[in-house]
Amino acid sequence: MVRFLLHGLFYMTANRLYPHNSRTMEGKKNDELASDQQTDVSAQATSPPGKSMGATYRAGQTAALAHIAQLIQATPHANDTIEKAVLEVGNLFQAVMGGLFLYEQERELKYQAGFGFSPGFIRDIEEVNKTDLAIRYVSGITSPLVAPDARSDPSTLAIGKAATSDGIVTLAWSPLISGGETLGLLLLCHKAERPYSSDDLGLLQMLVALLALTAANTRLAASPRSADGTKDRLFNVLSHELRTPLTSIMGFTQIVRKRLGNAQAPDTRVLSQLDVIWAQAQRLNRIIDTFVDIANIERGDFTISHGRVELGSVLRSAVRQANAQATTQPQINADIPDNLVWVHGDAKRLEQAFGHILANAIRYSPRDRAAELACAMPGPEREVTVTITDWGPGIPANRRKEVFDRFSSEEASAGGLGVGLYISKTIIEAHGGRISLQSDVGKGTTMSVVLPV
């Protein structure tokens, strides 16, 4: 089903946006299509960067995304797949150098694959990224960034100095993120100024998402197997066979949605259908993330990053996400102090933990009364308490202990998967905190999260 949607979106893009290409695509055999696409990518997707994007260039971008997705899907765990994919991405953006750097032991970035880099340049990049400042910087970015002139742009830090010695002018870089974890960095270099449009940045983010999945699965394939081979096989299916084509579906949906939306007379019915596809793809992605987290917890591979985290920002982001995903009104009323509240831990994991709790509160609250979130400032005990209250039916005393169990029937009865609070508890306890509940049958339930500051 996932692959069917992927190919359907690709042909929808080709036939609806670029009808002059549809006749040549329809008559090709499967074994000819891959080689033709590769030729089309190099011929169509490398227009001079200063020119406006025409239909041919856009078609080349779409074909490149499809080709790289097919390349990754064909050989999910092969190291040479990453090498080929990085080269494809570099060619697409006319980069003279490109490289993939992945974190290894002790959170050190190491060069894995690429083209054009001198050994000295690779050493410089690896040395720069050993510093605490660079590690915090990389872990803090979530989307592609571009320095049009790395020779004078302060955002490139010491990378700009290394690049200048090799004649680099424009630098583009993007983090590889999979399952909420930053796995590494993709770096593209140009020896002349190369502007990146918003379309370019969107496409780069989609391609990097595919590279992140490939890197994660390559790491998984190299890790020791557990005694339970069935669980390992299920984990592999979840992390690659579903997630990789799903990422492509989401990428194609964004491309089609944006280009149809920019048309002179956009078809609102088709745009609405694409919004449905996007929403359901995001929902499926969250479900996959949840089960991958459970598998990681059972394997002992569930990790969190460590750094200073401003809790108010985390809570506001979690509330926004919960409100956006909710299908009923009202949703969450939040009382978050303006004063900064710092904790030590992983911002993405904390947001995930609070997101699960908020989603539960929305499910249980009646339609005419919003759930509530409150954050109290730390007291003398140097702890901060966050409470989330719903006004639902409450939880009987004899069923409260199982609420935090994996596949809890109490949580599942409200339409969830029965694992959200289990994951939240794991995350909170990994931060040295604790989670508890108070419930009155017929009145509602309050979840309390306490974190050290």
Main pleated sheet:
5 strands, antiparallel
Q: Mind telling me the C-alpha Rg? A: 24 Å
Helical fraction = 40-55%
Shape: globular
Q: How would you describe this protein?
A:
The protein has 453 residues and is of the alpha+beta class. The chain is built from 15 helices and twelve strands. Strands 2-1-5-4-3 form a five-stranded antiparallel sheet, with helices on both faces. A hairpin with a 5-residue loop joins strand 1 and strand 2. The model is unreliable at 1-53 (pLDDT under 50).
Please sum up the structure shown:
It contains 15 helices and twelve strands. By secondary structure, the protein is an alpha+beta fold.
Key features of this structure:
single chain, 453 residues, alpha+beta, 5-stranded antiparallel sheet, 5-stranded mixed sheet, 15 helices, 12 strands, 52% helix, 17% strand, disordered N terminus
How are the secondary structure elements laid out?
Elements: H1 2-17, H2 19-26, H3 30-44, H4 55-74, H5 79-92, E1 97-103, E2 109-115, H6 119-128, H7 132-140, E3 145-147, H8 159-165, E4 170-178, E5 181-190, H9 198-222, H10 229-261, H11 268-299, E6 307-310, H12 311-325, E7 332-335, E8 342-345, H13 347-364, E9 371-376, E10 383-390, H14 409-412, H15 420-430, E11 434-440, E12 444-452
Parallel strand pairs: 7-9
Antiparallel strand pairs: 1-2, 1-5, 3-4, 4-5, 6-8, 9-10, 10-12, 11-12
Helix pairs in contact: 1-2, 1-4, 1-10, 3-4, 4-5, 4-9, 4-10, 5-9, 9-10, 10-11, 12-13, 13-15
